[in-house]
Give the backbone structure.
Amino acid sequence: MKLVKSLLLGSVAGFAAVAGASAADLPSKKAAPASYVKICDAYGAGFFYIPGTDTCLRVGGYVRAEYQYTPAKRIVTLSAAGFTNPAQVSGSMDTSGMEMRGRVELDARTQTAWGTARTFIRLRMTNNSGIRSFTETNNATIANAGSAQSTTLEAASVQWAGFTFGLAPSNYGFMPGIMYSSTPWTGFPNGQKQIAYTATFGGGLSATVAIEDKGEWNTPSAKTYNNTPANGYQFTANIRYDQPWGWAIVHGTIGNNSYNNSYTTTGAAPGPLAGIGAVGFGALNGSSTKSEYAIGATAMFNLPMLAPGDKLYLTANYANGWLGGLMSSGGLNNLSNASGGRILAGIGRVDSAITVTGGLGTLASPFTIGNTTGWNVGGLLIHNWSGNWRSQATAGYIEINPSTTTLANQWGKGRMFEVSHALIFSPVKDFDIGLELQYINLKSNIQNANAAFVAAGSPGASESGWTSKLRIERNF
């Protein structure tokens, strides 16, 4: 038995030796080292190292499909014979529309001796139709403009050592842009060109000073009687206080409005409707500037006592000659077009940062100019229900006060009230299916209305409307 065992062990050892020798004689080729994406957790979820660098990158964005229905409104038309105020004509304004949107963003960060160097890019592409794409004639909103496509650069900035250079969120508006509707406060969906510096003092306190592009504020134009510089600078600053309960910010901006008191002997006079209250136009009378500013406060409160993730946002603002501090192109600034017009239709206000208060526009009697003032309050409540449901509700009030004028048919005080509610279902995180309803009521005062304007039913003196939107959005 011992003999058999010895023979078996010897045979196994022999085979192993032969196999090892044979393998050593064969040619060998080492596999190329695998290149793996390395996770970067220094800046939060989703970041990874760009291979061969010490820069962390995050790729994100969303796809959105939005469907809107808004009941038709009356259309006010102007003809050579005078004013007409007909009932809504079938097909004169779309009652439905679609907006398809895709957004891509890149966030690259590298650690330096002076802090993190961040480069951020966000690009939005949109395809609209129906009531989401329209033309405007004689201040009457008429959709039926067909399909329209656009590409918008929302952000392109470099941040380092407290500085921000490029296109980035504004340093004045801090209410979130998460609602489907237009909102009764300022916002900058397309970013803000700027040079800014933020100082952090500890204890949650920080402050920012910035030079921003005046044109980005999308302040309503002052029509024929002033030229707001599109490339001027706006000086903006804020003080911010962050705490576990939320945050609070005081923000302000200051700059100048310019106006050119120059007219020809033809054309329409300033007024709610072109052609009403024409006045004598004169020759060049020179140009000047008026100071303008806006100041406000915005706060966010965490409400875990209601439900995890619940938040309440509040804002209040006052503006003197700078309506961009109250409203924006993405909001309700120009109520005869943009998003507000899709709800109100008919005739809405088109207010200006400065208004003509008197004069004939001649060398002997040049126009006099005054600032438009206004204020607003608004709030947004986000509440999370059980079962992946949440609600988002807004309410806001805006009041606009143009200077008192001697000219006919000029806008006086305007008061707008807005409420909306969205109910959203999220099957999984970052996937929303939501339905929203919004109601807007606008009341206007007309200064020095003439007989023709009154006979036309004082169009634009009172408007109200509602709209509904269905949105499907997937973020990544």
Observations:
- The chain is about 10% helix and 50% strand.
- The chain has a mean pLDDT of 78.
- The chain has one domain: 56-475.
- The longest strand covers residues 96-112.
